[in-house]
Amino acid sequence: MNAAAASEATALIIGDVQNGIVKSFGDDDGHVARVASAIEAAHLAGIQVIYVRVGFRAGYPDVSPRNRGFSAAAANNMLLADSDETQIDARIAPLEGDIVMTKRRISCFSGTDLDVVLRSRGITHLVLAGISTSGVILSTVREAADRDYALTVLSDGAKDNDEELHRVLVEKLFPRQADVITVADWVSAVEA
């Protein structure tokens, strides 16, 4: 994390680390444990933790048939906002003071009041982790950069089913708009 980013008001954003998505992607690589260590470090450092999960209303009035990914979820009766599959993984359960939002699209900003919450708290630097790198992380990086936030992506705090796509994003695309570091390096910087 660069010195300028370290001095800014920071929030750790955890995107889509929810039961159904963790189950779909698997966790044999220890991804959730790494995210948990980032959350623990954020709590100890007084950094705001914000969880953003994807979920839809009963009957899917918020899903367009033109949206390929989400219309498939609707057709299979998946990702209803009150279902167990949309709840945050219990291993990283929110604590008092953490913020939980439900989004209706891929980016953490789409269908939420995330920008209002961040600006109200004077937060200018976002640290991103979640599932998937090519989904919530990519969409949030692009939108957050357009909104002039300083960004850090936790390279191993993000996960994707396509390892090559993950590599290209964290090594080539994200560094154009964000600092990209490992969870361990971020935790060390926060603890320093």
TrEMBL record:
Residue ranges of domain Isochorismatase-like in the record: 10-185
GO molecular function: hydrolase activity
Classification via InterPro entries: Isochorismatase-like_dom, Isochorismatase-like_hydrls, Isochorismatase-like_sf
Entry-linked Gene3D superfamilies: Isochorismatase-like (3.40.50.850)
Keywords carried by this UniProt record: Hydrolase
Stored SUPFAM superfamilies: Isochorismatase-like hydrolases
Name the record gives this protein: Hydrolase
Organism per entry: Nocardioides humi
